[in-house]
């Protein structure tokens, strides 16, 4: 069963369309890498796929409970320990597998440390480990390897491969070569929206007032 199907999708940020006419599917076991220059709309697309903002046009077909989003920011609870952060997320999503997540992202020795006392790369590893305890099939990831050293990028790729092997899917916006050769690459550059207003949001209101 297809995990995610996008047809005729247009997305907008701050009332401005960023990308349009997007069509793609994500099948179990597939990873899709989103490419494109800064400001093109990769984050906007991921946020829309995650259901954090509405599509401007077109359709997204996915089980509403199938996606988990790892944003640019780590979004950790700084006073909670590494394990407590994972437990929190497992409870929110109804997932499990905390020990496996700790082990896979090389966090076991840091399990009792509060998140505020982690390095940037350690925080990032924890932010990514959270995906594993969500139990969600579709992982949406925005620049997941920022702050990671080469060894940690390797752990991340291993984690994604395990997820794909279990029938999951992944959509990853990244500027680097992850070494995930089996992933499909979607260059979003041709889908840059013509400079039109979305008809919703602040910019549209601004237009009405001053246009
Ligand atoms: N909060 C916001 N309000 C209004 N416009 C925004 C906001 N955040 C981003 N934008 C604009 O929306 C457009 C798309 O931004 P987005 O973050 O989706 O791009 P991106 O492809 O992820 O970029 P990068 O590679 O730099 O992360 C950009 O032109 C950006 O300036």
UniProtKB/TrEMBL annotation:
<dbReference type="InterPro" id="IPR017871">
    <property type="entry name" value="ABC_transporter-like_CS"/>
</dbReference>
<protein>
    <submittedName>
        <fullName>Heme exporter protein A</fullName>
    </submittedName>
</protein>
<feature type="domain" description="ABC transporter">
    <location>
        <begin position="4"/>
        <end position="207"/>
    </location>
</feature>
<dbReference type="GO" id="GO:0016887">
    <property type="term" value="F:ATP hydrolysis activity"/>
</dbReference>
<keyword id="KW-0201">Cytochrome c-type biogenesis</keyword>
<dbReference type="InterPro" id="IPR003593">
    <property type="entry name" value="AAA+_ATPase"/>
</dbReference>
<keyword id="KW-1278">Translocase</keyword>
<keyword id="KW-0472">Membrane</keyword>
<dbReference type="GO" id="GO:0022857">
    <property type="term" value="F:transmembrane transporter activity"/>
</dbReference>
<dbReference type="InterPro" id="IPR005895">
    <property type="entry name" value="ABC_transptr_haem_export_CcmA"/>
</dbReference>
<keyword id="KW-0547">Nucleotide-binding</keyword>
<keyword id="KW-0813">Transport</keyword>
<dbReference type="Pfam" id="PF00005">
    <property type="entry name" value="ABC_tran"/>
</dbReference>
<dbReference type="GO" id="GO:0017004">
    <property type="term" value="P:cytochrome complex assembly"/>
</dbReference>
<dbReference type="GO" id="GO:0005524">
    <property type="term" value="F:ATP binding"/>
</dbReference>
<dbReference type="InterPro" id="IPR003439">
    <property type="entry name" value="ABC_transporter-like_ATP-bd"/>
</dbReference>
<dbReference type="InterPro" id="IPR027417">
    <property type="entry name" value="P-loop_NTPase"/>
</dbReference>
<keyword id="KW-0067">ATP-binding</keyword>
